[in-house]
TrEMBL record:
Lineage, uppermost ranks: Bacteria, Bacillati, Cyanobacteriota, Cyanophyceae, Spirulinales
Protein name per Swiss-Prot or TrEMBL: Glycosyltransferase
Record-linked InterPro entries: Glyco_trans_1
Organism: Lusitaniella coriacea LEGE 07157
Pfam families: Glycos_transf_1
Glycosyl transferase family domain sequence ranges: 221-304
Residues spanning the signal sequence: none
GO molecular function: glycosyltransferase activity
Length: 333
């Protein structure tokens, strides 16, 4: 028995992107589905990295665990998690346990044995597979997503599984040792919120914080950059596993911004983060976070809260239980 973690191929080629654009512009649903199920991406999303980390933890716990793509080769390089084996999706066996990401859960019906739908993103959560099959289980990552799963898959409980934060990749660095006033933001996640927050902050007379927009970095490049800022602006209206705010907390960076409708469930106002659902609120929070003592206290509280997701804590406990749970080939769920 192996644990097979399905992820997309990383592909910077132009052909599939052209097909995707044509399908979108002309609303050609058959072509859209073909491109979608082709499972190629030119962005390494946090959800994919989280799946890779689960594979890594499972292997550390003694399981035979591999990543699967349609092509079966590592196309990620430095953008992924190193030293994880890859196999073609078609090389799965009946006795394997297949973990399938939310945006291609329709592929679960291809699995002969046991399968797990890993549901991390609200927009990708659909009842497009036989979720009532006793050999199919549901995983998700937050109370917010659990409620969505309950509505989407009535009669089938979803298990909340821990995200995985790597403290070696994102080590804690105190606020006093970071670049004063540097505030990171991801422009691919609601750039309008970022711009409006910046303008509102200036209108309040704020001069301490300066926003740096970060995009297109590999995970190793991002980890290196995360050693610099004092703050992170969470701008997304909807999130999946919401790794950037959690990695910020592990690093000693104060997080200000949106809870993403509950996806950023580790954010607790005034204790582990500065919650702000509008640019005006975010600007006011940034004024409050100009206080060094407030920042230092909040960053240390956040670190303590997020440390539960370090590999040797809840993720390892979770995988030790899962491995025992799936050892019996006759076991159904």
């Amino acid at each position: 028995m192996r644990f097979i973690f399905l992820i997309p191929d990383f592909d910077l080629g132009k052909t599939w992107k052209i097909q995707e654009k044509i399908a979108h512009l002309l609303r050609l649903k058959p072509l859209q589905r073909k491109v979608f199920l082709g499972m190629r991406t030119d962005v390494v999303f946090g959800g994919t990295l989280n799946i890779m980390r689960h594979c890594w933890i499972a292997r550390n716990c003694g399981a035979e665990a591999v990543l699967a793509t349609l092509r079966g080769v590592d196309t990620y390089g430095d953008r992924g998690i190193k030293n994880l084996p890859f196999i073609p999706w078609d090389a799965r066996r009946k006795e394997d346990v297949c973990i399938v990401p939310d945006y291609v859960t329709s592929r679960i019906d291809e699995v002969e044995g046991r399968a797990i739908a890993y549901l991390q993103v609200p927009l990708h959560t659909h009842a497009d597979f036989n979720y009532q099959d006793p050999c199919v289980s549901l995983w998700t990552d937050s109370p917010h997503m659990e409620a969505i799963c309950n509505a989407t898959y009535p009669g089938k409980a979803a298990q909340i599984v821990p995200n995985i934060i790597d403290p070696e990749l994102f080590p804690f660095i105190p606020q006093s040792q970071r670049e004063p006033g540097v505030l990171f933001a991801f422009p691919r996640k609601n750039p309008e919120f970022i711009d409006a927050t910046e303008n509102a902050y200036r209108a309040l007379g704020g001069k301490y914080w300066r926003i740096e927009r970060i995009d297109g970095l590999s995970i190793s490049e991002l980890a290196k950059e995360f050693q610099r800022p004092q703050g992170f602006l969470a701008s997304a209206e909807v999130e999946g596993c919401a790794l950037p705010p959690q990695e910020s907390m592990a690093s000693g960076i104060v997080v200000v911004g949106r809870q993403a409708k509950g996806a950023n469930f580790c954010m607790e106002q005034g204790k582990t983060a500065a919650i702000a659902e509008t640019p005006q609120e975010a600007a006011q929070r940034l004024i409050e976070l100009e206080n060094a003592e407030v920042r230092d206290r909040m960053s240390r509280n956040a670190y303590q809260a997020i440390s539960r997701y370090f590999p040797d804590r809840e993720p390892t406990e979770f995988w030790q239980k899962i491995i025992q749970q799936y050892k019996s080939p006759a076991l159904t769920f």
